[in-house]
Amino acid sequence: MTVSAAIAAPVGAVISACDRMHDAGQTCNYGIKGNSLVGCTNDVVFECPADGSRQCTGSKNTSGKCNEDGTAARVSTMKGKELLDALHAKDLHPSK
Fold this sequence. Notes:
Layout: H1 2-7, E1 9-10, H2 11-23, E2 29-33, E3 36-40, E4 44-49, E5 55-60, E6 75-79, H3 80-92
Antiparallel strand pairs: 1-5, 2-3, 3-4, 4-5, 5-6
Helix pairs in contact: 2-3
């Protein structure tokens, strides 16, 4: 369990970053899929399983699309800081 906590991003930080993007008029949606909170941007897909860890992992969005329910295509897992950096990069470069 210690290893997964070190390589995942806290759910609160991920949702806050997504909400900031959404409030800035950028694409970041999330919703419930099965037993997990899932979400996406045009570049990133993330998942926060309801396993008690309160940690999220992510992957690159291969479709470039993000559905309203937070689902999209994905490839190559991103974890922890890499996931948060991808979300925060959108905070620093708002779309026009």
